[in-house]
Amino acid sequence: MTPPPGAPAPELVIATLRGHAGSLAWSAALLIAVAGAVGFLYGNLPAPFEDWMLLAAAGALVLLGVVLPFAVWLSRTYTITTRRVISRNGMLSRSRVEMSHARGYTVGTRRSVLQRMRGTGTLTLSDGVEGQLVMKDVPGAVLIGEVLADQVEMNQILAHRDSLL
Protein backbone atom coordinates (compact mmCIF):
# COMPACT_ATOMS: atom_id res chain seq x y z
CA MET A 1 0.00 0.00 0.00
CA THR A 2 1.35 3.38 -0.97
CA PRO A 3 1.03 6.29 1.43
CA PRO A 4 -1.20 9.22 0.47
CA PRO A 5 0.53 12.01 -1.48
CA GLY A 6 2.71 14.20 0.73
CA ALA A 7 2.59 11.84 3.72
CA PRO A 8 5.90 10.39 4.90
CA ALA A 9 6.27 6.69 4.22
CA PRO A 10 7.53 4.62 7.17
CA GLU A 11 10.76 2.73 6.62
CA LEU A 12 10.11 -1.00 6.92
CA VAL A 13 12.68 -3.79 6.93
CA ILE A 14 12.14 -6.12 3.98
CA ALA A 15 15.00 -8.55 4.62
CA THR A 16 18.18 -8.97 6.65
CA LEU A 17 20.72 -11.24 4.99
CA ARG A 18 24.13 -12.76 5.53
CA GLY A 19 26.35 -14.44 3.00
CA HIS A 20 25.82 -18.15 2.48
CA ALA A 21 27.37 -20.26 5.24
CA GLY A 22 28.85 -22.65 2.67
CA SER A 23 32.20 -20.91 3.10
CA LEU A 24 32.27 -22.32 6.64
CA ALA A 25 32.36 -25.93 5.39
CA TRP A 26 36.16 -26.05 5.65
CA SER A 27 35.93 -24.75 9.20
CA ALA A 28 33.47 -27.50 10.11
CA ALA A 29 35.73 -30.14 8.54
CA LEU A 30 38.72 -28.74 10.45
CA LEU A 31 36.79 -28.86 13.73
CA ILE A 32 35.86 -32.52 13.15
CA ALA A 33 39.45 -33.40 12.20
CA VAL A 34 40.91 -31.64 15.24
CA ALA A 35 38.41 -33.32 17.56
CA GLY A 36 39.25 -36.73 16.06
CA ALA A 37 43.00 -36.14 16.27
CA VAL A 38 42.82 -34.96 19.89
CA GLY A 39 40.65 -37.93 20.83
CA PHE A 40 43.09 -40.34 19.19
CA LEU A 41 46.35 -38.76 20.39
CA TYR A 42 45.39 -37.68 23.93
CA GLY A 43 47.36 -39.91 26.29
CA ASN A 44 49.24 -41.61 23.40
CA LEU A 45 51.85 -38.99 22.55
CA PRO A 46 55.55 -39.88 22.15
CA ALA A 47 57.95 -39.10 25.04
CA PRO A 48 59.08 -35.51 24.33
CA PHE A 49 55.50 -34.26 23.91
CA GLU A 50 52.90 -33.79 26.61
CA ASP A 51 49.11 -33.66 26.52
CA TRP A 52 48.96 -29.92 27.28
CA MET A 53 50.95 -29.27 24.10
CA LEU A 54 48.38 -31.21 22.09
CA LEU A 55 45.53 -29.29 23.70
CA ALA A 56 47.26 -25.93 23.10
CA ALA A 57 47.87 -26.73 19.42
CA ALA A 58 44.28 -27.94 19.01
CA GLY A 59 42.97 -24.79 20.71
CA ALA A 60 45.03 -22.56 18.43
CA LEU A 61 43.82 -24.44 15.33
CA VAL A 62 40.20 -24.18 16.43
CA LEU A 63 40.57 -20.49 17.25
CA LEU A 64 42.21 -19.56 13.94
CA GLY A 65 40.43 -22.02 11.65
CA VAL A 66 36.92 -22.20 13.14
CA VAL A 67 36.09 -19.35 15.52
CA LEU A 68 37.71 -16.54 13.51
CA PRO A 69 36.06 -17.42 10.14
CA PHE A 70 32.71 -17.83 11.92
CA ALA A 71 33.08 -14.40 13.57
CA VAL A 72 33.96 -12.82 10.20
CA TRP A 73 30.92 -14.45 8.58
CA LEU A 74 28.71 -13.34 11.46
CA SER A 75 29.94 -9.74 11.25
CA ARG A 76 28.70 -9.15 7.66
CA THR A 77 25.03 -8.27 7.23
CA TYR A 78 22.93 -6.77 4.48
CA THR A 79 19.63 -5.08 5.35
CA ILE A 80 17.07 -4.18 2.71
CA THR A 81 14.43 -1.66 3.75
CA THR A 82 11.73 0.16 1.84
CA ARG A 83 14.05 3.19 1.51
CA ARG A 84 17.61 1.88 1.22
CA VAL A 85 20.09 -1.00 1.27
CA ILE A 86 22.52 -1.09 4.21
CA SER A 87 25.73 -3.13 4.24
CA ARG A 88 27.50 -3.57 7.59
CA ASN A 89 30.77 -5.42 8.11
CA GLY A 90 33.73 -5.55 10.44
CA MET A 91 34.45 -6.95 13.87
CA LEU A 92 36.67 -4.42 15.62
CA SER A 93 35.99 -1.41 13.39
CA ARG A 94 32.54 -1.38 11.83
CA SER A 95 31.95 -0.19 8.29
CA ARG A 96 28.53 0.81 6.97
CA VAL A 97 27.55 1.58 3.38
CA GLU A 98 24.07 2.72 2.37
CA MET A 99 22.44 3.08 -1.02
CA SER A 100 19.10 4.85 -1.40
CA HIS A 101 16.38 3.39 -3.61
CA ALA A 102 15.10 6.86 -4.53
CA ARG A 103 18.39 7.86 -6.17
CA GLY A 104 18.32 4.75 -8.31
CA TYR A 105 21.02 2.21 -9.10
CA THR A 106 21.70 -0.73 -11.37
CA VAL A 107 21.67 -4.28 -10.05
CA GLY A 108 24.27 -6.64 -11.47
CA THR A 109 24.21 -10.35 -10.68
CA ARG A 110 27.16 -12.71 -10.92
CA ARG A 111 26.78 -16.42 -10.18
CA SER A 112 29.54 -19.00 -10.47
CA VAL A 113 28.82 -22.68 -10.99
CA LEU A 114 29.15 -23.36 -7.25
CA GLN A 115 26.89 -20.41 -6.44
CA ARG A 116 24.24 -21.65 -8.88
CA MET A 117 24.34 -25.08 -7.22
CA ARG A 118 23.84 -23.48 -3.79
CA GLY A 119 21.22 -20.99 -5.03
CA THR A 120 23.34 -17.97 -4.15
CA GLY A 121 25.03 -15.15 -6.06
CA THR A 122 26.91 -11.88 -5.78
CA LEU A 123 24.92 -8.69 -6.36
CA THR A 124 26.61 -5.44 -7.33
CA LEU A 125 24.60 -2.25 -6.83
CA SER A 126 26.04 0.74 -8.69
CA ASP A 127 24.60 4.25 -8.82
CA GLY A 128 27.26 5.51 -11.24
CA VAL A 129 28.28 8.38 -8.97
CA GLU A 130 29.33 7.39 -5.46
CA GLY A 131 30.48 3.86 -6.08
CA GLN A 132 29.31 0.33 -5.63
CA LEU A 133 27.82 -1.82 -2.94
CA VAL A 134 28.72 -5.49 -3.30
CA MET A 135 26.55 -8.11 -1.62
CA LYS A 136 28.71 -11.24 -1.63
CA ASP A 137 27.26 -14.76 -1.87
CA VAL A 138 23.71 -13.87 -0.79
CA PRO A 139 21.06 -16.61 -0.81
CA GLY A 140 18.30 -16.21 -3.39
CA ALA A 141 20.30 -13.68 -5.41
CA VAL A 142 17.88 -13.62 -8.35
CA LEU A 143 14.87 -12.96 -6.09
CA ILE A 144 16.78 -10.33 -4.10
CA GLY A 145 17.76 -8.61 -7.36
CA GLU A 146 14.12 -8.49 -8.44
CA VAL A 147 13.05 -7.10 -5.05
CA LEU A 148 15.70 -4.39 -5.28
CA ALA A 149 14.63 -3.43 -8.80
CA ASP A 150 11.00 -3.21 -7.62
CA GLN A 151 12.00 -1.03 -4.66
CA VAL A 152 13.94 1.36 -6.91
CA GLU A 153 10.97 1.67 -9.24
CA MET A 154 8.49 2.19 -6.40
CA ASN A 155 10.64 4.79 -4.63
CA GLN A 156 11.21 6.74 -7.84
CA ILE A 157 7.47 6.75 -8.56
CA LEU A 158 6.74 8.01 -5.04
CA ALA A 159 9.49 10.66 -5.27
CA HIS A 160 8.14 11.88 -8.62
CA ARG A 161 4.56 11.93 -7.36
CA ASP A 162 5.54 13.90 -4.25
CA SER A 163 7.59 16.38 -6.29
CA LEU A 164 4.46 17.34 -8.26
CA LEU A 165 2.67 18.49 -5.11
The secondary-structure class comes to: alpha+beta
SSE sequence, one letter per element: EHHEEEEHEEH
The rounded distance between the terminal residues' Cα atoms is: 19 Å
Fraction of residues in H or I helices: 40-55%
Low-confidence residue ranges? none
Shape annotation: elongated
How much beta, percentage-wise?
A: 25-35%
In short:
This protein is of the alpha+beta class. The protein is 42% helix and 25% strand. A four-stranded antiparallel sheet has the order 1-2-3-4, with no helix packed on it.
How would you describe this structure to a colleague?
With 165 residues, the chain is α+β, with helices and mostly antiparallel strands. 42% of the residues lie in helices and 25% in strands. It is built from four helices and seven strands, in the order βααββββαββα. It has helices at 25-41, 51-74, 113-118, 141-163, and strands at residues 13-17, 77-81, 84-89, 95-100, 106-110, 120-126, 132-139. The protein has a four-stranded antiparallel β-sheet, with no helix packed on it. The protein has a three-stranded antiparallel β-sheet with strand order 5-6-7. Strand 6 (120-126) and strand 7 form a beta hairpin. Helix 1 (25-41) runs antiparallel to helix 2 (51-74). The longest helix has 24 residues, at 51-74. The protein is elongated and about 85 Å long. The relative contact order is 0.16. The model has no long low-confidence stretch (mean pLDDT 90).
